[in-house]
Fold:
Amino acid sequence: MSRRIRLGALGAMLVLGLLATLMPAASSAAASESPVSGGSATAQAERGGQDPAADFPLLPSRCYDSANSRPVTPCRLEIYPRRPTVFLWGDSHAWMYLPAVRKLAQRNQLNLTIMFAGGCPPARGERADRTRYCEAHNERALAMVTEYQQLGRDYTVILASWWAGYRQAYRRLGRPGSSFTAYETHQIMLAHNGTSPLFTALRNRKIRVNVVAPSAYVPLNAPACPAGESPYACPLPRSAALNAEVRNRQWLKSLIRPLAGSPRYIDPTSVYCTTTTCLPSVGRHATFFDAIHLGAGLTSTMTSYFAPVFRDLIRRSR
Structure:
């Protein structure tokens, strides 16, 4: 059985808190949307009957804790004895890409283990903080892939996060109008201070990692969208939806460059953005699930962007 728990419900205190602070009043509907709401009937009809409440990846019940509120990490989704393993690691933006990654794991009969928690940036906290939920989650993930590396098993890691959102939130800390809670501030600082140390640990342990580029989200000061705001259904300038795109890409690539092997920078943004505009839909798929996540229908079409990672792994394991 799969649990219909929305991405927006993951780490809700942090994700929705950050969203409310970063998003404009014009998009407040997306920020305050109930985890079980389905969006307006009008917006649904305008997208050809697609139900926005279902446009998110599902997980089997075994991948949730006893309260069905958080994913249990790590959780093995696809199991093929004596086959290589793909680890999908990160926050809800890693979960966001699950449809494409899982398709490829099934197609190639590769093991797939998920290691994500909403609102938890993939980062390494201070030693004194490593019993906190997000820090402990990342330590478990690091320990598992380290074990695979030390045992000489065939594996690869795909790392994804709300990179741009955390970086934008850090720039807004202390500015007039920002009202982050102490918990949100801790998570922002965890992303800011802990991302580089995590990549250093991955490099030192020679762990094979591939990183997904920042994705578009509904930006600060987005105009009101008559076609619907839950999710946002109007075109957006690429420069706004991909906030500080060049700086973020340079920053991520500088972290990736020293990693072991030939790490790939996976950038599927061309699926839904032209060089100037991010589209509200692609074919029958809405671009956004909510204001900060892409829809599962859309990400399910992105297999060609992740396929080289799988080919690399299969080639190494022969």
